Amino acid sequence: MAVWFAVATFPFLWMFLISFRKAVDAFATPPKLFAPFTFDNFHHVWVEDAFWHFAINTTIVTAATMAVSLTIGCLAGYALARYEGKLGFWLLIAALVFRAMPHVVLLTAYRPAFFELGIWSRYETLIVVLVAINQPFTIWMLRAFFMGIPRDMDEAAMVDGCSRWGAFRRVVVPVMWPGIVTAGLFSFLLAYNDFIISSQLMNGDMTTMTAALGNYMGQKQSVTRLMHGVAGAVSVTIPIIILVYAFQKHIVSGLTAGAVKG
Amino acid sequence: MKRKSFLLFVAPSVVSMLLLIAMPLAGVVYLALHQSYVKTELVELTTEVPLFGGLKRQVTRTVPQPVLDENGRGVKVWKFVGADNIVQAAEVEGLDEILSGAREVTSLRGFISELHREITNVDFWSALEFTLLYTFGTTPFVLLIGLGLALGVDRASERLRGTMVFVSILPMIVTPVVSSLAVYWLFLDGAVIASLIEALGFGRFYFLADQLTIRTVIVAYGIWWAAPFAFIILYAGLQTVPRDPLEAAMIDGASAWQRLRYVVIPHLMPLLAVITVIHVMDAYRVFEPILVFGASVFANSVQYLTYYTLSYEDNANKAAAYAILTVIGVVILLIPVLVHTYRDQATRR
What we know:
With 262 residues, chain A is mainly α. Chain A has helices spanning 2-19, 23-26, 40-48, 51-82, 86-100, 103-117, 123-147, 151-159, 164-175, 177-193, 196-201, 209-212, 223-246, 248-261.
């Protein structure tokens, strides 16, 4: 156990540690445990490399992806939990196959199509793509949550004169918030962590934070540049750590709902 | 729920998946079956070449020029080539030669290793080889470590559990590019791990310069990245183990190991199956560590190969051919799962 905790955290702790160092100290041979402290790397990345700009892009894209993905995912998840026909089963199977698709396969088709349509490198494009890629997982998970809500609730509401839509909106959604928060967290992680699609669909000023890390990679980089990469990587990690720490309980319940019941 | 309202409710989600997942898949098939190039035509070009003293001479040459449309872009021609791209991508001809080629057979073992070496010289097959090695090499360890962690955390005191869960799932939730980088930086020549091994007296290691070590590091990364996922699911599953059989087993004098083996593990079996399926799907898509480690020479993956062809070689048709082969692989991996789900559903009715 203790070994695992050390192994699980060490790469990140080390990354945090060296991000506050000068290049000479960070990658010294042999490595040093103590070294002078500096904020230079973060300053360079955020101010001179305009990382704040990429951070804004990331915020717009992830927030919009979460909102749209949850809205349409809730509708579909609810319907799948309540409908008993064969169609629902086939839809879930199709979603499972879609979930397994390597993203680069889709990217191969997006490239020529989006160039033709002239919708390259725009927020809307990336958001819509990420929403679609998110859907299979989201509907499976939300379906599991909706199945946990007794049918009697919406049926009672419908007896009282609500339409199906009214029962969904006024009765079911209000008790679904924990499930929606969990699914939202996973949409966030997927949109935020995506590298392969974001780095290819967006360029220049439109790059997201995660994709911008690509600029610092490669073995021919100078060590100073590498240090900026370390600072960038740390900057990308911090929001996730904060969010996941805050919503930790939901992650456990979400993965359980998505996998155990599905 | 009525069929009509079902269709209305699922419509937005289904439309998004059809437009951006199903249609692109069809598009990839189309791309893979065609070859595209910019149309050229032979144009007689007359230029004036200055001679001496202000004299000029007209020279007419016939040169190939791209045909432009009214926007000044090259006109692309799409030619149907059937399975040519795919055959080329899989290098079927090369394989044929390898398989039928005459060679001195000294021993069966030597023959197989020779065959293996030649086949893995081909881009696609070597990428597939490592992808499968990664997928099936990580799976047992992911399950074992996940189970061990789940049992350990389950036994820990109530107060410690929260922190333990949080720390354990870090490798899974941090952006894969970042976590690959964090691990990569540890394994650089002369960096932390190499120095540690040297200090312990095992000699010098250059992890990134040798096929065996780089593959080991990437597989280890895969285990490290996926074990938290198995842990979380199994941990949640452990909370649902029924108390009665456990107590009955204890009264009957079953040891801790026997209780685990005959009560807990059978209860967790469906979860272990789910984890295996999801892990295989995710592992088959391995991409980030290959990119970050710059390891494609020693350890390529099918997804990275497609990505490389697409963005560096800028060859959409060839990339599409690789993509098709990748999809075929996914489908083959998924068939047992789909059949099982279908039977399961059929018996429930």
